[in-house]
Amino acid sequence: MKKVLSVLFISLLVLSLAACGGTTQETSSNSGSNSSNSNSGEASSDYPTKPITVVAPSGAGGGWDLTARAVAKVFGETKLVDQTITVENKPGGGGAVFLAEYATQDTKNPYKLFISSPPILINNLKKEGNSPFGYKDTTPLAQLTKDYGAIVVNADSPYNDLASLLEAIKNDPTKITAAGGSSPGSMDHLIAVLPAFKYGVDPKQVKYVSYDGGGEAIAALLGGNADFIATDASSVGEYLKAGKVRVLAVTSTERLAGDLAEVPTLKEAGVDADFTIWRGIFGPKEMTDAEQAYWEEKLTELSTNESWLKELEANGWESEFKSSDDFNSFLENQEQVITELLTALGMQK
Description:
Blueprint (H helix, E strand, L loop, with lengths): L1 H16 L34 E5 L6 H16 L6 E5 L6 H10 L6 E5 L2 H7 L12 E17 L7 H10 L5 E4 L6 H12 L8 E4 L3 H9 L5 E5 L4 H5 L3 E6 L25 E9 L4 H16 L1 H10 L2 E5 L1 H21 L5
Parallel strand pairs: 1-2, 1-3, 5-6, 5-7
Antiparallel strand pairs: 3-9, 4-7, 4-8, 4-9, 4-10
C-alpha cells in the first residue's frame, strides 16, 4: 500500500509541475563503499582538525534548518565530535542553488556537510526546473529522521477543519492561496496539493506560492499572505502552543504525540492518504575512506545517544537511521521509482 501511495505522490508531483509557471523562490552522493568515487589516499588520522559547517539549504525555521541545528547541538554538547560545528543557511530553489555550488566547488571539502530530503532526488529528475546535480554528486552519510507534513491555517482563519478548506478550494481554487517553504513541484507543494487532489480538485489548479524555507512560509501565513501553508509537522508546534496557528491535519498514518496529539490525520479528516518526509546528512563526493569511516562511526553513535533522542522528541521527529550503505541503496531505489514514473508520463529530464 505504501508503495502505491509513493507512486501517487510522485504522480501528483508531476501533475503539479504544469501549474508552476509563477515565481519560484525558496528556501551531496555515492555510497561510502563505492571506492571508485572515493579518494584513494587516506585522510590524516586526526581528522577533523578544524571547525565543521553543516549547511541547511533553506532559510531559517524549516525542517532542514532545525535538523542541522539539532545535529550541531548534540555533537557539541556530547563531545562526540571534538571540533566546533556551525550551521549555515543557504536558501534557493529548494536546495538546488546550494547543491550546484557544493557539487562544483566543495567536492573535496570534508569540513562542509549538509542536510537534505526528497527534493535532492526530485529536483534532479524532473524535466521542468531541473537541477543538473543530484545525490550522486555527493556522498550520502546517513538517514537520520522521518517527519510528516501538516496543513496549517492562521488562528483566526475561517477554516476550522480540513473539509471546509478543501470545499473552498473546490468551489474556486483561484481564491485560495497555498504557501510552502520549497519550490513548485517540490515537497511542500506536493503536500499542499495532495489533499485537494484526493478531494476531487485538479492539482494544477491549486494556487501555490513558494518561500525560502518553512520559517518564511509561516511568516507569510501570519502576515495574511496565504490562506494555508503546507509544511513539516515538526516545525509548527511552537506556533500552535502560542495560539498563532491552527493545524487542520497531519500526513502521518497515526496521530502524533506532543503538541500535535489532538490534530487529526488526513485519513481521519476524510482524505485517504499519508506522506512521510525523510531527512539525511550528506558530504562531498570525493571524501576519503577515512573521512567516511569517521562519520559512519559518529553518526551511528549519534543515532542512539540520549541527547539526540531527546531532540527527536522535542521536535516531533521519529528516528529512522540508515547507515551510509543502506541510505545509498534506499536513494537508488527511490530514484528508480521516480524515474520510471516520469518516463511513463513523458516528463523525465
